[in-house]
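Researcher: Let's continue the batch. This sequence belongs to Aminodeoxychorismate/anthranilate synthase component II, and it's 193 residues. Same format as the previous ones, please.
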Amino acid sequence: MILVIDHYDSFTYNIVQTLGKMNRDILVKRYDELSIEEINLLKPKYIVISSGPGRPASDGVTKEAIQRFSGKVPILGVGLGCHAIAETFGGELKKTDNLLPGKAMDIFHDGETIFREIEQPFSATRYHSLIISNENLPDCLVVSAWSSKEEIMAIRHKDYPVEGLQFNPESIMTETGEQLLKNFIEYNRMVVD
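Model: Same format as before. Here are the structure tokens for Aminodeoxychorismate/anthranilate synthase component II:
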């Protein structure tokens, strides 16, 4: 089962629809209506953390879920979900100098894990004005994708199957979004089986 932790984002069900092509067993729960105990009982094989408005909140279950399930369950964060991953492991957020909400931009990547067999660069869309700061990025996180302005567009944990995307793979303007989500499921299949 894929657990999608929703942050009241209007695009969450676009992600759910895309993931549904790969796995029909999906449950969507709001971040402030879910507990760690419930997640334990659900026994998800994957956790996807949606985007949403603002900054990762200290209320709700998101950051605690990242702490508790990293290394046990593959986790993918999108937008705000990516920010929550960064902050959970000690990263910092800042406002972007290149605010382009809803605009496509070129994304470059390392070709690893979810970026396997993804063209270089590819076009993707982001909707968030916050980005992960390049300064003081914790050693446990690597930059796996970046913009032409060298802004962090994706992160990966060095030891755990935890990835974050600054851009929105579910956007119609993200050329390879469905393949990225498929790669997340396929690459981590050996972890969950």
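Researcher: Any comment?
Model: Residues 177-187 form the longest helix (11 residues).
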